Amino acid sequence: MGWLMDGLDTESYDRTYSDRALIQRIISYFRPHWKAMITVAVMVFLHSLTRAAWPMAMSYALDAITADARLINITIMVVLVLLSGALGWLFNFLRQRYSARAIGDAVFDLREDVFAAITQRDMSFYDETPTGKIVSRATSDTQDFANVVELTMNLLSQILTVVILSVVLVYINVWLTLLLLAMAPVSVFIALAFRRIARWATLRAKRVTALINANIQESISGISIAKGFRQEQALYNEFADINRQSFRVHLVRGITLNSVFPILNVTAGIGTAILLYTGGQAVLGLVISAGTWFLFMQAVDYFWYPLLGIASFWSQFQDGLAASERVFALIDAESKVVQIGDEPVPAVEGRIEFDRLRFSYTDKEVVLPDFSLTIEPGETVAIVGHTGAGKSSLARLVTRFYEFQGGQILMDGRDVRTLNLGQYRRHLGLVPQSPFLFSGTVADNIRYGRPDASDEEVTVAARQIGGGDWLLDLPNGLNTDVGERGASLSMGQRQLVALARVVLHDPAVFILDEATASVDPFTEAQIQEGLDTIMRDRTSIVIAHRLSTVKRADRTIVIQDGHIIEEGTHDALLAAGGHYAELYNTYFRHQSLEYIESFGREQVAAEVAAFASD
User: What confidence tens digit (pLDDT) does each residue in 408-418 have?
Assistant: First the structure.
């Protein structure tokens, strides 16, 4: 069966819960809605009572008509049947209404807990888990959680009907009742025998569904790259492989869960035949009446239907338990970023110390083996180095997106792990290489860090970036819709929006992570003006690929393999002729030539002269 399970391994945060623990956890979501659940329980009892009353009414009427076939007896029979049916409908309607509300409230609470857990996970969680799989747990799995509760209520109603009928039948004829009840354990045993295999098949069906969701999400996100390299067929082939696996997994699940019904139907047929023969002999021997025999034969259906329902319920119940297990595992996943304190952070001066810091994303490779650096308040430090040197890791560690394994990071002399994380992050402003914009307008995205900011404050912040000239290129200015993930704007415009967002946020510490690496020279110039505004009187960490950003820094740090190999100003490092000079000659200088070609030599000469005079 190995071919069936390829790629369906559990996630790193998955865990196994016992059925008892899962059921207790599910019940905990209904406990706040106990009034509605009590109403549902009462309606279930009354509905079961009216269902049991129907065959008893038919039995009574049949005996009455046999003894005295008058119109009044037939009328009484019709009235009893109609009354039991009407009351049954009413009680069932009320049960459905109140249970739908209670289940809806419970699922509402569960999804809030799931989403809260998702927002609290650290960045390493998203590195390891595909987005589609997370979405699958937050949507389809929580819905299966709701379905299992509704199924449970239906089954309880059926079982309660059986209990009420059993009490009545024991009173009428003990021997036939015992014969009827003797068939129950056989069917229950058959249904419950499928328990483990049903859980096994269901869990794997859930995993392959999550795998399909993840594949579709990734394919749509990368469709432009696929089209650019003419790899649409490769995308289709990859999906087709996963889809075939899904077909096989669900086929095995369907065969496994549905094979119980033919076995139960054969058992039910044998039991019905035995009761039919025995009851018929009792009627012929005048031991019971025809109406009583009819009641017992009707009771067979009332007995077998819940027993068959157990099999059907069990497969779907396993769906619900498997879904609940996946949802609760997501909620209970432990964060790798752990705060050991909750000290308030009312203000930040901006003195940052990396003290013998050790960090790795995985156990296989250490990114920062023993890193130490002190950044003074208000200082702008540029960090340069080849790809993989550990530059971006420093930004991610300062913001507490990842947990380091050794050493300390101190903010104003305080270990960042002892601070209230929410308050601490309010004093940080990060602009990544690929800024993310949420659906809405440009103004909405600038206001994201300060939802209470006025329109005037948003406008002032936007105009501090590049003098506000970039707003003229937007069709509706600040009211321009950015589209999904900012697709309506260019990369440069997204960066300008991200910078304006930081200006409005007004952080004490500013972190720029290669934000000008993918923009044209003209937009870079606009961004640079914005950077001058943002970095003024703030501690700034600039992870740079552009010479213009590096030259304005108070100090440049050159790192290689997680170690500082050079440190100084731009001019001093060039004069030293070391690794920075090599980077400048092979990378920054190439950028300068591109810049000259884009803007023209005269304009560049004027800018260089202006820069020199500064």
Answer: 999 999 999 99
Residues 143 and 280 in one domain: yes
Q: What is the pLDDT of residues 149-170, one digit of tens each?
A: 777 777 777 777 777 777 777 7
Question: How sure is the predictor about 611, in pLDDT bands with cuts at 50, 70 and 90?
Answer: very low
Would residue 538 count as lying in a domain? no
Three-state SS at 357: strand
| Average pLDDT, integer, range 541-568 | 83
Question: Which H or E run includes 344?
Answer: none
Q: Which of 506, 532, 564 is the last residue of a domain?
A: 506
| Backbone phi and psi for residue 546, each to the nearest 5 degrees, phi listed first | -115, 135
33 near 105, Cβ under 8 Å? yes
As a whole number of angstroms, the distance between CA 57 and CA 440 comes to: 64
On whether residue 102 sits in a domain, the answer given is yes
Higher pLDDT, 406 or 600: 406
- Does 71 score more than 70 pLDDT? no
Calculate the CA 60 to chain-centre distance: 57
Same domain, yes or no, for 198 and 61? yes
**Cβ atoms within 10 Å of 66's Cβ, excluding its own:** 12
Helices and strands per DSSP (H, E), number in the chain:
25, 10
Among 506, 522, 547, the domain-final residue is 506
* Same domain? 76 vs 218: yes
Helices 521-535 and 491-505 meet at what angle, rounded to 10?
Answer: 10
Number of domains present in the structure of the chain:
2
Whether 30 contacts 143, CB under 8 Å? no
475: domain CATH number is: 3.40.50.300
129: CATH: 1.20.1560.10
Range of the structural domain that residue 240 is part of: 2-332
H-helix segments, 173-231: 174-182, 184-193, 195-221, 223-228
**Nearest of 424, 400, 396 to residue 412 by alpha carbon:** 424
Beta-bridge partners for 353:
374, 410
Please check whether residues 324 and 434 belong to one and the same domain. no
Q: Is 412 left (phi over 0), alpha (psi -120 to 50) or beta?
A: left
Are residues 291 and 434 both part of a single domain?
A: no
**Does 194 lie in the same domain as 321?**
yes
Q: Strand, coil or helix: what is 126? A: helix
Query: What's the average model confidence in pLDDT over 70-90?
Result: 76
* Cβ atoms within 10 Å of 550's Cβ, excluding its own: 21
Q: For 133-137, 443-447, 541-545, which range has the lowest pLDDT when averaged over its residues?
A: 133-137
List phi, psi (to 5°) of 414. Answer: -110, 135
- State residue 604's pLDDT score: 45
Give tens-digit pLDDT for 204-252.
777 777 777 777 777 766 665 566 556 677 777 888 888 888 888 878 7
- Kindly state whether residue 576 falls inside one of the protein's structural domains: no
- Note whether residue 474 is domain-resident: yes
User: In this structure, are 118 and 222 located in the same domain?
Assistant: yes
pLDDT digits (tens, 9 = 90+) for 195-211: 666 667 777 777 777 77
